[in-house]
Amino acid sequence: MTQVVVIGGGVSGLASAYFLSEKINPAEITIIEAEDRFGGTIRGVDFGSRRVETGPDSFITRNPSAVEMASKLKLSDRLVSPATSSAFIYSRSRLHRIPAGTVFGAPSDFKKFFGNSLISRAGQLRASLELLMRKATVEGDTTVGSFAQKRWGKEVTERLIDPLVGGIHAGSVHQLSLAQCAPQYLKAAESNRSVSIGLKSQTANYTSSGHPAFYSFASGLSELVNALVELLTKRNVKMIADTKAIEILPGAAGYSVVTDSRTFEAEGVICATPAYITAGLVKPFSSSAAALLSTVEYASPIMTLLAYEDEAFSEPPEGSGILVPRPNKTLATAITFATNKWPTWKTDGETLLRISTGRVGDNKAWEFDDELLVAGLEAEMKDVLGVRARSVRQNVTRWDRRIPQFKPFHSQLVHRIREELPPGVELAGAPFLGVGIPACISSGSLAAERLTKGRIKPC
Ligand SMILES: Cc1cc2nc3c(=O)[nH]c(=O)nc-3n(C[C@H](O)[C@H](O)[C@H](O)COP(=O)(O)OP(=O)(O)OC[C@H]3O[C@@H](n4cnc5c(N)ncnc54)[C@H](O)[C@@H]3O)c2cc1C
What structural domains does the chain harbor? Predict the structure, then answer.
């Protein structure tokens, strides 16, 4: 029987085990998870009389992996989409609608874009010069920020593209890879002299999958985790929580996975852990892979939940939330009107906000303890939303080094890391194909496929 160990029980590790169990039969698959629960960054907490997400609250459908996984797990009828998607940007002490005529923050239709309140007239004119520019040339890769600033100017980059594209990664567009984090721009640049025109035709050609852009599940994303755990248990996958992998050594079957309680023998291993943890695991047999893995940087966001009595707002907040660009120098980087987005969270006459803080180059929120952070955010909610009272319930979840940063030429880095690993050791997780849940599921599928395509053999 083929023995495989998956290290890490987040969605990537669970998906890896799922695809392995489909591909290898008979197999003895073991998942080792350091915490006392599975799901990793997917986590809900009881908050008042509802259960609320403190990590991701939805996933995109453009990459179909998560929707397909939901169908395999017979969860399709549990899928729910956000009740609202209209969002605002806070700039110069007021709220602005995200300008019309933009794709992923970049102006694509200037007839609709002109006249928006977020970007100054000079900034709008500067952006429109993109229509007259020579075709963009990108030598392999660059940063999103450098590309965007050259094409549409500093203001559009700072006030629109950084909060949108950088925000997804809790990063900075001045460090993130264009190829990895805004492939739409690159594709538009390849097909058109003007990137804006290319983006406009991309949207015209975009054929809807029939799904809304985002989904969660009726009782939250934990439904996906719970269904995977249940199915894997039925398939006799050994689910071992509260056990921390320390290192992988050559062993009798191929590898020995040494943990803080016992050692597991395996012919194949999938590491579905953050890159800096994986570095330590593979170091005994590949110091070069370990060194490359250690170069992947991480952002450390903090998610704060604040519940307010409805009466605290002079007017109920509108839409799904607000993005807060860096120049505001606020603690909050994004504010989700959680009870607008997910109406089933609305109970007890309370309005619930999910507030993100902490991004690359801006970790001031980590200097505060929970009490001070809540007080600081409450003061900001007064300024930004005009909230007149203090919150009635709070929860702070700190996500230390949870969101990998994709620097230019990231896919080449991943290729080099894989080259440095011996047969039988594969990688899954947010650092490889993307941070979103669908990309994590795809990374599990890829790892299982690579492992089963003749790569299971002793080192
Ligand atoms: C605040 C926040 C909001 C987000 N919002 C969204 C969103 O709305 N939509 C979206 O698609 N994505 C979102 N993401 C990203 C997404 O949640 C993650 O990229 C994804 O869940 C990562 O899954 P993973 O399995 O790769 O890693 P993780 O979830 O980090 O799982 C890794 C697991 O490995 C375990 N582990 C670590 N070390 C060891 C060890 N030595 N031995 C054994 N186990 C170990 C950990 O305990 C953990 O359970 C968000 C992330 C954060 C932090």
Answer: 2-39+219-297+407-455 (3.50.50.60), 100-205 (1.10.3110.10), 301-398 (3.90.660.20)
